[in-house]
User: Fold this.
Amino acid sequence: MRTFLKRTHRTSRTLALAGAVAGAALLLAACGDDGSTDGTGQGPTTSASAPASAPASDSFNDADVTFAQMMIPHHQQALEMAKLADGRAEDADVKKIVAAVEQAQDPEIQKMKAWLKGWGKPESAHAGHSTASMAGMMSEQDMKDLAAAKGKDFDRTFAELMIAHHEGAVEMAKEEQKNGGNAEAKALAADVVRTQSAEIAELRKILERL
Assistant:
């Protein structure tokens, strides 16, 4: 009986070892078949892969260029208005809007400058697109009036001017959404419409209680 058990044990070990060897062979075969052959054993094949798509920033049209060239100075003026709030603004919600403008618009300016550089276009707008003609841009007198105001007077003036400024930006952004061809520029335009429309609504609420 003991002899039979020993033989059975040796036989089981032998079968297990054989199975392990066979499994390893199959695994090596599978690893070797990494798609480098065409399935006929004739060696490596070269597949004609489609060329990688160009980055979105490489595809643009005139509307994209105009959007960036005009929105840069538009954003820059918004930042100038926001800077005037330091030491002049009194309302906490106005200060929140100021912080939001500074946080969002400076990075957007840098992004648009990078686009124009990549497109081989100047940062300044072409003739016929002066900053004075942009929707919502403040006049020199508007900026002087804002700088001269303090406290609630500043808060009220800032809200009124920034509503008009934001409305101009939203108008420009909607034009880009309609006519632009660059995916990144259209995405930024969508952000402008969304964020600045929300800020317009908030600024109107502020005006109602000032």
Observations:
- The radius of gyration is 33 Å.
- The chain has six helices and no strands.
- Residues 1-56 have pLDDT under 50 and may be disordered.
